[in-house]
Amino acid sequence: MKSGARALGVAESYRAETSQFAGAVVRASRVADGFVFSTATVGGSDATETVCEMVDRLDREDIRYLLVAGLAPAWFNVLDLRQIHHHTDLPVVSVTFESSPGLEGAIREAFDDPDTIQDRLATYRAQPERRPVSVNGETVYIRSVGIDDSAAADVVRAFTPEGSRPEPLRVARLAARGLAEME
């Protein structure tokens, strides 16, 4: 991958009813060259819209990939990766860092309202399957839309200089945590 290729990483952090979202534009050469911030409702259903709005506000044609930390930020505010891809026209890769049996049981336990549960489960089930990817000797799990499995794995590896967290997600997570601490 060329050193000037850019990815937008989006991560979140929350401490109250509002989750702070941060986006970091990072080059493959590890240089950060842009930020964008927003919020989503903890336990809400606005995370997909938040990510789309962040990309819109950046208004950057040089971003080639969109990496998101996880699939259910802000306490099961489930992202619709296909909707994000359709809206942004960017390849979207969701990266998680731990093995899990999935979110269905956790979603059922977290909410009382049957309609809320069904809506979240429908969005969750509509997402691509998670696939393990080896990165620097560690395993991460990815879901991707708008890019094939092999290319998505290559993007994650290219933006991960060490450890298993791609640099755009690492920087975005630090920024989101800083915002949440100010709250």
TrEMBL record:
Q: Which domain of life is it from?
A: Archaea
Gene3D superfamilies hit by this protein: archaeoglobus fulgidus dsm 4304 superfamily
List the InterPro entries. Answer: Endo_dU
Record-linked Pfam families: Endo_dU
Cross-referenced PANTHER family: UPF0215 PROTEIN MJ1150
* Family designation: Belongs to the UPF0215 family.
Question: What is this protein identified as?
Answer: UPF0215 protein C444_00807
Species assigned in the record? Haloarcula japonica (strain ATCC 49778 / DSM 6131 / JCM 7785 / NBRC 101032 / NCIMB 13157 / TR-1)
